């Protein structure tokens, strides 16, 4: 009797919390299939599964209690062939699952779990899952178009300066100009190195007389 009172007290408490939750996970199963809702917890003793029907938003239906020993205690009014519990352990994390057989449109609504810890503390595991059987999932929005290159911008970072946006437009002409100057310089030096010594002597003497 004490456990039953604790369960329904938790149900009323969790109802207030879930009303303010916005970020729900959405699942869109086909009709007449087995659908699974999962709930994870760490160092917990048990979970309590709840359902908020889509047709009656103010109603919260307690489904069953499932502990670490794989003991399941159903609410007397719940169809035990409709809802089944599952449990999988991985390290310190325990994944509980709620399996709903032959889902129908009447099964639509919010499914969530309340986690029970060793110190008799109950907390919601996550926002829950919004189940929409027989409903097509919304088409994802197309990705945004690629951004066009921004205008030429120069930024300073201390002493270093670099070009952004039009860096290539400025860099390659500068490289071409430097290469041209180097070629002219090499050609000039090569030309004078090929002149006879007499010509070079006359050129220097003439320059001194002037």
> Can you write the helix and strand succession as a string?
HEEEEEEEEEEEEHH
Radius of gyration: 39 Å
Structurally, the number of domains stands at 2
Provide the low-confidence segments as ranges.
154-165
- CA-to-CA gap between the ends? 123 Å
Short structural summary:
The chain is α+β, with helices and mostly antiparallel strands and 210 residues long. It is 28% helix and 33% strand. The termini are far apart.
Structure report:
By secondary structure, the protein is of the alpha+beta class. It folds into two domains: about 1-130, Immunoglobulins (Immunoglobulin-like, Sandwich), CATH 2.60.40.10; about 155-210. It is built from three helices and twelve strands, in the order H-E-E-E-E-E-E-E-E-E-E-E-E-H-H. It has helices at about 1-20, 165-195, 195-210; strands at about 25, 35-40, 45-55, 60-65, 70-75, 85-90, 95-100, 110-115, 120-125, 130, 155, 160-165.
Any chance you could write out the topology, listing elements then pairs?
Layout: H1 2-19, E1 25-27, E2 35-42, E3 46-53, E4 61-67, E5 72-74, E6 83-90, E7 93-100, E8 109-116, E9 122-124, E10 129-131, E11 153-157, E12 160-164, H2 167-194, H3 197-209
Parallel strand pairs: 1-10
Antiparallel strand pairs: 2-7, 3-4, 3-8, 4-5, 6-7, 8-9, 8-10, 11-12
Characteristic key phrases:
single chain, 210 residues, alpha+beta, Immunoglobulin-like, seven-stranded mixed beta sheet, three-stranded antiparallel beta sheet, 28% helix, 33% strand, elongated, Immunoglobulin V-set domain-containing protein
């Amino acid at each position: 009797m004490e456990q039953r009172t604790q369960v329904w007290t938790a149900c009323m408490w969790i109802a207030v919390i879930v009303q303010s939750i916005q970020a729900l996970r959405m699942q869109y199963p086909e009709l007449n299939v087995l659908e699974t809702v999962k709930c994870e917890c760490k160092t917990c003793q048990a979970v309590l599964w709840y359902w908020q029907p889509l047709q009656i938003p103010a109603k919260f239906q307690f489904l069953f209690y499932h502990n670490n020993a794989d003991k399941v205690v159903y609410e007397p009014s719940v169809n035990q062939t409709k809802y089944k519990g599952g449990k999988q352990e991985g390290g310190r994390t325990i994944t509980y699952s709620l399996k709903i057989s032959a889902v129908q449109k009447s099964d639509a609504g919010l499914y969530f779990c309340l986690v029970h810890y060793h110190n008799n503390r109950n907390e919601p595991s996550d926002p829950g899952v919004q189940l929409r059987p027989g409903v097509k999932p919304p088409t994802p929005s197309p990705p945004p178009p690629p951004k066009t290159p921004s205008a030429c911008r120069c930024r300073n970072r201390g002493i270093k300066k670099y070009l952004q946006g039009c860096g290539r437009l400025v860099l390659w002409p500068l490289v071409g100009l430097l290469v041209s100057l180097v070629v002219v310089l090499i050609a000039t030096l090569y030309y004078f190195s090929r002149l006879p010594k007499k010509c070079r002597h006359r050129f220097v003497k003439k320059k001194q007389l002037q």
